[in-house]
Amino acid sequence: MITPVLDIRDLGISFGGLKAVDQVSFQAQRHKITTVIGPNGAGKSTLFNLISGALKPHRGQVMIDGVDMTGAAPERTKAAGLSRSFQITSLFPELTVAENIRLAAQVLETARRAFLPISRSARAMSKTSQMLERFQLTHRRDELAGNLSHGDQRRLEIAVCLASEPKILLLDEPTQGMSHGDTADTAKLVRSLTEDVTVLLIEHDIGLVMDLSDYVVVMHQGRKLAEGHPDVVRADPAVQAAYFGHH
Ligand SMILES: Nc1ncnc2c1ncn2[C@@H]1O[C@H](COP(=O)(O)OP(=O)(O)OP(=O)(O)O)[C@@H](O)[C@H]1O
């Protein structure tokens, strides 16, 4: 049997009496895009916090590539190959575009080489150039990250996440606040990421979800309401009632 890269089993957490995530199970298949959707307050961000280790679940398990990482701190899930991009920008605005990427790529150097001067961090330097080119940011490499447009910042954030060569990328609304053109470019970019990583996405733009996702998990009031291929999920009457507001 093939081990799923991410296996969520019966995951749950409560805040006071509120079951924010309740008995949620699903698997993300390697090099595919799995998207978590659901109305506001459905538990999507909490689910991401449980997977990345920002929150410890009260029940259930998080398996990364067959290894039990339940409740492991974010540094450990990161070392296990999980990288997360936040809704709120997490770049260093006072560093250049290239420096932001190189900092993340520094983990590729062996421990012995990690503290070498920048000019001798060969792997990190080459990864940085590769990311700049792939994300069409080479012409902006020496610009301060804080001076980039919103769309470019979001793309840089994804480049930073990818620079450490993770197995799984958690993207929380990568197109939020983007123009129509930037959204289309980012969708293309996210699709191309599956060459390298497995993508777990939170996205509100339902058109984008249907275009982009290989698999959709629908959450509602903390629970998994449905899962499957985008077309199957869209046709599900329970999903239509809860999410699209139809009856
Ligand atoms: N730290 C917390 N303490 C108490 N309640 C919380 C906490 N974090 C989330 N909640 C509650 O848990 C529920 C799920 O919230 P969550 O942010 O995960 O939903 P979401 O699906 O990501 O929503 P949105 O689409 O609005 O981002 C909500 O009712 C929220 O108010």
UniProtKB/TrEMBL annotation:
Domain ABC transporter: 6-246
CDD domains, per database record: ABC_Mj1267_LivG_branched
Entries under InterPro entries matching the protein: AAA+_ATPase, ABC_AA/LPS_Transport, ABC_transporter-like_ATP-bd, ABC_transporter-like_CS, BCA_ABC_TP_C, P-loop_NTPase
Regions that span the bilayer: none
The keyword rRNA-binding belongs to this UniProt entry's keyword annotation: no
One annotated GO molecular function: ATP binding
Keyword flag Nucleotide-binding: yes
SUPFAM superfamilies: P-loop containing nucleoside triphosphate hydrolases (SSF52540)
Keywords on record: ATP-binding, Nucleotide-binding, Transport
Family to which this protein belongs: Belongs to the ABC transporter superfamily.
Name the UniProt record assigns to this protein: ABC transporter ATP-binding protein
